[in-house]
Amino acid sequence: MKLYYSPGACSLSPHIIACEAELPIELIKVDLTSKLTETDEDFKQLNPNGYVPLLILDDGNSLTEGPAIVQYLADQAPGKKLIPPEGTFERYQLQQWLNFISTEIHKSFSPLFNPVAPEAAKELATNLLMKRLETVAEHLSSQPYLLGEHYSVADAYLFVTLSWGQYVNIDISRWPALARYADKISERPAVQKAMKAEGLVE
């Protein structure tokens, strides 16, 4: 399998899950400005949307969108218990969290990274983001992971989005539960492995 990524972007989430699941994966770096891969491929020919992640399977099939990719990867290694079994209520709870992170947290960060976004748009995004992070912090104040006692693909995704706060003046330490959560996940060997591979930590 090939995973197209950009360091520290949302593609870090499937990268972490591939490491957690101990799946063989080839990493291909993408310059999101030029839309060229490190091997000078036109990335938009591979994913017309022009953003990462993109997973290409050995049989040529491909997946875009991080929430779909992390579920696929986790299902390839059921023994790792990174995702609840299909058909269980817990699986739907996981999908609920993946959707919440994607639409309410991930997308709220987007204007903050956009150099041409008006300040008013950034202020609106920041205010919404604060409310959504407050919701997550409250949820995590009484349990270690989003699904309770068990780490899942949703935690990898949330961890990645929380890591973006340092770049846009969103200090998650104002929510002790979130800070503890992020620190705990950052210490996981698979997380360290993925971050080192992307040059995010030494």
Task: Describe the 3D structure.
The protein is of the alpha+beta class and 202 residues long. It folds into two domains: 2-80 and 190-197, Glutaredoxin (3-Layer(aba) Sandwich), CATH 3.40.30; 89-188, Glutathione S-transferase Yfyf (Class Pi), Chain A, domain 2 (Up-down Bundle), CATH 1.20.1050. The chain has eight helices and five strands, in the order βαββαββαααααα. It has helices spanning 12-20, 43-46, 66-75, 89-113, 119-140, 153-163, 176-186, 189-197; strands at residues 2-5, 26-31, 36-37, 54-56, 62-64. Strands 3-2-1-4-5 form a five-stranded mixed β-sheet. Strand 4 (54-56) and strand 5 (62-64) form a beta hairpin. Helix 1 (12-20) packs across helix 6 (153-163) and helix 4 runs antiparallel to helix 5 (119-140). The longest helix has 25 residues, at 89-113.
Distinctive features:
Glutaredoxin; 202 residues; Glutathione S-transferase Yfyf (Class Pi), Chain A, domain 2; five-stranded mixed sheet; alpha+beta; 2 domains
